[in-house]
Design brief:
single chain, about 250 residues, Nucleotidyltransferase, domain 5, 5-stranded mixed β-sheet, 4-stranded mixed β-sheet, 9 helices
């Protein structure tokens, strides 16, 4: 049988299909103003026997497709175990929230913390800051990695941080050093979440921000343990939902 999972996030929607315990198909798209329509487009023409929804808009999908739902926390635990069986914690920095999850020696959920009150320190925060500095997201990461020192960023509120960055640039601050300061502020905040759930061992890094090379390097340095990033860190939740849909999780 083919089991599908769909992760309806605030910024992107991810769809994955598993067959015989292997990933056989995945695709993703910007959430847009019509998440239900986007979800249907992602699933169109793809054969599967059962689907489970997770993420920000999972109950919207449940109401229209009559499919079961699973929490993001459970989906990310299952998805992390699909890719790695020796991680002590999971960090997901998504478009609008951050999740830190600790796992026991068998890869099961111990406890978790979330930052979901605002977009501070999330993928959306990075997008805004990159735009303020005149970088694409790829350029933003590379610029931060090239900096020899970091400008300190005091505010993590997106609105206030934007004003702070504009002020720094107007005072002649180096863009690359400001970029590194922003990355350091984000990772410091995320590491704080991880430390509160008492992680042990290797960290599984998921979500769109895991594609950022500077974020990965800073997280490893801040936590002092190896960081594992799967081939596509954005589809971890969708894979977890697909595993939940199966009969042999």
């Amino acid at each position: 049988m083919r089991y599908a999972g769909i992760d309806i996030g605030s910024r992107t929607i991810k769809f994955a299909v598993l067959e015989n315990g292997k990933l056989v198909f995945s695709r993703k798209s910007i959430t847009s103003h019509d998440p239900l329509g986007t979800a249907r487009e992602l699933m169109e023409g793809v054969a599967f026997d059962r689907v489970t929804a997770t993420g920000y808009g999972r109950h919207l999908i449940k109401g229209h497709l009559a499919c079961p739902v699973v929490s993001e926390i459970t989906a990310f635990v299952l998805g992390a175990r699909f890719f790695s069986d020796d991680c002590g914690s999971v960090l997901d920095i998504g478009g609008q929230d951050t999740k830190a999850i600790s796992l026991d020696e068998n890869g099961n959920l111990c406890k978790f913390e979330m930052n979901d009150r605002c977009a501070a320190g999330t993928g959306r925060f990075l997008e805004v800051m990159a735009t303020v500095l005149g970088f694409t997201l790829e350029e933003f990461s590379a610029a931060a990695l090239s900096a020899k020192r970091a400008e300190k960023i005091n505010s993590m509120c997106t609105v206030f941080a934007e004003s702070e960055v504009v002020s720094l640039i107007s005072q002649g601050a180096d863009r690359n050093e400001v970029a590194l300061g922003i990355h350091k502020a984000i990772i410091s905040r995320s590491a704080g979440l991880l430390k509160r759930v008492a992680p042990a061992g290797k960290i599984f890094f998921a979500g769109g921000v895991a594609l950022n090379g500077c974020a990965r390097a800073l997280l490893e340095s801040e936590m002092g343990v190896p960081v594992f990033v799967p081939p596509d860190p954005q589809i971890v939740g969708a894979i977890g939902a697909a595993l939940f849909a199966s009969e042999d999780i």
